[in-house]
Amino acid sequence: MTVAVIGAGAAGLMAAGAAAEAGARVLLFDKNAKAGRKIMITGKGRCNVTNNCDVQTVLANVPVNPRFLYSALGRYSPADVMAFFEAHGVPLKTERGERVFPVFG
Asked: For the whole model, what pTM was predicted?
């Protein structure tokens, strides 16, 4: 089976990875020359991947319509994001403001 993913941002890369792990051949399309380009600019260029807090804390800090995120955060919490990266060999560190970054080098 071949899966086409349009958009190589955070959601597109996660979808492509999940499809590949399930055995699909994946075609990933994006208007940028590099996949994940916008992700790399988060956290002043250090790639802030999540915040080290519980779901209720995330929702309490969403200024407009936090209910929109209930379903997504119920299925994939900040702890799940951290576990995903660490399971794939990406060490993480938590910094000021509970922001989580990959450890490079």
From this structure: 0.82
At 61, is the secondary structure helix, strand, or coil?
coil
Q: In residues, how long is the chain? A: 105
d(CA 53, CA 82): 11
> Beta strand 2-6 with 25-29: parallel, antiparallel or unpaired?
parallel
Environment class of residue 100 by beta-carbon count within 10 Å: exposed (0-12), middle (13-18) or buried (19+)? buried
Q: What is the pLDDT along the chain (105 residues), one digit of tens a residue?
A: 999 999 999 999 999 999 999 999 999 999 998 898 888 888 888 889 999 999 999 999 999 999 999 999 999 999 999 999 999 999 999 999 999 999 987
